[in-house]
Amino acid sequence: MMMRRMVGVVAALMLMQRVAWAAEEEQAEKSLGTVVVTATRTEQPIEAATNSVSVISAQDIANRQTQTVSDALRDTPGVDVVQPGSTGTAAGVFIRGADTDQTLILVDGVEVNSATLGGFNFGNIMTDDVGRIEVLRGSGGTLYGSEAMAGVINILSAKGAGAPHFSLASGGGNIGTSSSLGAFGGERGIVAFTGSLGYFTTAGFRATNNDFSNLTSALRVDVTPIEHGTLRGFWRSANSSLGLADNNIGNGYGDFIDPNARQSDTFYLGKGEWEHTPTENLTYRISGAYNYTLNVLSDSVDTEVIPPPFPPFFLSYFRVPNTNTVADAQTDYTEGTLGVTTVGFEFKEQTGALKSVSGSGDVVRFDASRNNYAGYVQQQLRFLDDRLSIVGGFRTDGNHDFGSETSAAWSVGYLEDWGQHDRWSTHVKSSYAEGFRAPTFNELFFPKSGNQNLAAETSSEYDVGAAQHLGFEWLTAEATYFTRRTSNLIQFTSVAQCPGAVVEPGATFTPCNLGRADVQGVETVVGAGPIHGVSLRGTYTYLDWNLLGGKQLLRRPHNRMSATLNYDRGQVLRPADRFNANLNVLFVGERTDIDPQTFTNTANQTYTRVDLAMRYDMPLPGRETSTVGVFARVQNLFDRNYDEALGFKSPPINVLAGGRVSF
Question: What does DSSP say about strands 282-298 and 262-276: parallel, antiparallel, or unpaired?
């Protein structure tokens, strides 16, 4: 029944008459210049997107001088970032109030979510060589499958362009912070390339064992051996080491620094892709990718802090490797009476393992793997000289752990351009999307608690919004209302309260499909400029929820605001130089959290954080294509004391300053 309904949606769209597809270069020139790929898995101007999409450009990252991807995401409407403690700790990202394991994370289009935990640790991912970050707010299950219930975050590498060039940057600051980055890029004949190698370290702000270091490498190569055919290769790695000074929090002994707890994270990703457009109407793409992550935590008996000596709280050793192997093929067919038809197939193999040793010496281990097969169809239509856009599609996933799931989606948008010169325009849009989340390996197989009879979580979401652009795009305003219902939520409960649970003998608590959550909210964005080099952008997100049993969403505020003031000017001191200053203010409202000592719900207070970044670049004498510059960044400018996660103090004021040269 579900399959017939989904096919009917797409068939009805394909039979519509008088369809006009906007592919002319003239229309592309009239766009805002930002192209996105995540919403439809095809390139489209962001102003034509019928879904809620945000883009963080390489220029945005450079202006704010953000070191980590999680920091770059903080200004995105509908997105909350929580990092418990110092730089490098596991950072969670919540889209529209959903759990971290209900958001799909892609790096160059490759899924990197953990098969054991479900979510993704942003603490280890730096912004080195990131070309842009696309955030799809709202379910992407129709195109991406499991974990995309709340949205998709796609971290995309920059493509090499222009004459070959090389740059070096290095800086240092307080609390033992230093950063170095070497990058290169360019084009030579049929080859375009870009890459970087960066190292970041900080001693942290705790008395001991609070250091963090990260080594990141990235490479992208595009080769065009034939006309309209491109072979691409992607590589990204990150290796980090972190001192867990706060590891004792919640053990009943109080806030004592743990001098021995250490964590290391390893991340590797490689991808190969072939894209070819053999005819004007047809483009196909074939790719294969492999992602490996390893998280290791070790702790030993703490004798230095609290007499008498006590064993490590909860764990003394924890090792979790995960892999994602993905192969997919996609075809896009453009025809004047049908628009763009996208058909794709995907195979994914996930493996995960766990070995942990508790403070009492108990050993827990398991190994698991699963395969997922999926097919998806999407139809994009344009009418009325491209002003009316309609998109519909469905995807079916087959998995031996939870069976099959079919997700459908549709969206519609109408764009009215009121003037050819002043660029007054109005864009209204609405969408509906279904999504699901497959149970994680921990939920299925963790010894003495895993439930092998779990079903997938499912969701349905509506949103409606409007965007107004005034006066050559210098003033913009956008508002979106969304509502989402999630069913079959997996929650931890007693085995006796979970009928049908398949658990190991002796299990007393287990995950169970018991919960339901209704979440709704409003996202707003206002932007102005640039006018004489000054631009202003502000966001506000309101979030509300109704959970079964009256429970609260933890660490999600009802109110969240941000404002960014950017000043950019050339010819400040000499011809061809450039100065940029960026001031960012983030306000996060009160939210419910768990007290780490009493384990009861309590309020975590509001906080406001202010960041400032400045840089100045000028050409080297006699070498117009080479530049030298200086930069400075201050995080938490007013040295506010706050907890993103209750009980874990966030970093104090942090200054980083240095220089760069490019040639």
Answer: antiparallel
Choose among 307, 319, 316, 320: nearest CA to 360.
Answer: 316
CA-nearest of 311, 306, 315, 303 to 253 is 306
Where do runs of H (alpha helix) occur along 33-79? 58-64, 69-72
CA–CA separation, 110 and 291 (whole Å) = 8
| Residue 63, pLDDT above cutoff 90 | yes
Task: Report the C-alpha gap between 142 and 396 in whole angstroms.
Answer: 8
User: Which has more pLDDT, 654 or 313?
Assistant: 654
- What's the token pair of residue 407? 């997700």
DSSP, res 495: G
302-322 in b/e form (b: 16+ CB < 10 A) is: beeeeeeebebbebbebbbbb
All structural domains of the chain: 2-662 (2.40.170.20)
Q: Does residue 19 have a pLDDT over 70?
A: no
- The closest of 133, 77, 75, 81 to 563, measured between CA atoms, is 75
**In the predicted model, is pLDDT for residue 102 greater than 70?**
yes
pTM over 0.90: yes
Residue 32's nearest CA partner among 372, 396, 473 is 473
> Which residues have a Cβ under 8 Å from the Cβ of 314 and sit 6 or more positions away?
251, 358, 359
